[in-house]
Design a protein that fits this description.
Rossmann fold; four-stranded antiparallel β-sheet; 7 helices
């Protein structure tokens, strides 16, 4: 009798500690409101925080190899995480030409094209698996549909990249999360006549249906650090150009956003971020060996205006 009671007590404890939290987590994901592609969620006190375009008098970019160097306690560990065995997919968005003229930028579309080129040319992504949306084609519906399309076909061993360069915004949005102040990416309305928003809670919901634990987010916007709280989850790396209240910058001196210039152009494509020989071929630096954490560390070490922030929930270093 005592053994039966002991076994019953252990079983109840096991269910309480191990099984119920998993059920509750799955239930909470299923309860997340799915984004409506047609209508943005209700929001008040919305403030667009525009990426700042520096003139020719802005501080010139640091010459390659002469930056401030690798920060201590950087994100990169030098230990390569488990490589993925499936396919790679990406949604890459950059908006320079917003509806009208008051909100236009110069280089966010270039940021997106270079990110696309890095994924295909450096990391071997299939061209057909990279959805590029720029300027007036980067509507709310197009972005959310692209994410949904990938969620349907992506498997547990696949890898996903989401990149956005453009304006950010903040406000009080009924987007399903518990934040009082929400952040958003500023996108194009479906009729291409005005601006609209995809809030952080909506992005969280859009990515809640993915079975893979290899998701990379890259945001080159003002306020982008605010994305971390909603998107943090095991297996994800969230790379943000600045902190929750900070500004992002672009300039003709970089012909990019500052963060994208060092993260993508210099860090990935030119391979300047590579400081660890992850592939053990004794060659450093090389672009194909740059992990996400190395690219972030390089951007953080060299950005003079942006204040890059990372949420790294992937064990060791993630090589796309």
């Amino acid at each position: 009798m005592q053994r039966k009671k002991l076994w019953l007590a252990l079983s109840i404890t096991l269910i309480t500690v191990l099984i119920l939290p998993s059920i509750a987590y799955t239930y909470s994901l299923n309860k997340l409101p799915k984004p409506d592609k047609q209508r943005p969620v209700p929001a008040t006190n919305i403030e667009i925080v525009k990426k700042i375009t520096l003139g020719r008098r802005g501080k010139p970019p640091t010459p390659p190899g002469q930056g401030k160097g690798k920060k201590k306690n950087g994100a990169a560990t030098g230990i390569l995480g488990e490589p993925y065995e499936g396919d790679s997919y990406a949604v890459v968005v950059g908006i320079s030409d917003y509806p009208g003229e008051a909100n236009d930028l110069n280089y966010s579309d270039d940021d997106a094209r270079e990110m696309r080129d890095a994924l295909i040319g450096v990391y071997g992504f299939s061209k057909s698996n990279v959805k590029l949306l720029t300027d007036l084609d980067a509507t709310r519906e197009a972005i959310l549909t692209a994410i949904k399309d990938i969620s349907i076909i992506a498997g547990v061993n696949d890898e996903i990249v989401f990149f956005f360069s453009g304006h950010g915004a903040k406000g009080f949005a009924d987007d399903g999360d518990k934040e009082r102040v929400d952040e958003s990416i500023v996108v194009v309305s479906n009729d291409k006549e005005s601006l609209t928003y995809i809030w952080d809670g909506e992005i969280k919901a859009a990515f809640s249906g993915f079975s893979t634990s290899r998701i990379i987010f890259i945001f080159d916007t003002c306020l982008s650090g605010g994305m971390k709280r909603d998107l943090e989850e095991t297996g994800r790396v969230i790379n943000m150009a600045t902190n929750e209240s900070g500004y992002a910058y672009e300039s003709n001196l970089w012909e990019n956003g500052e963060f994208s210039y060092y993260f993508v152009d210099m860090g990935m494509i030119q391979g300047k971020a590579d400081i660890y020989d992850h592939d053990n071929d004794t060659t450093i630096p090389e672009s194909s060996d740059v992990t996400i954490e190395e690219a972030f560390d390089y951007a953080k070490a060299n950005c003079s205006y942006d204040k890059p922030t990372i949420g790294d929930y992937f064990e060791d270093d993630l090589l796309p």
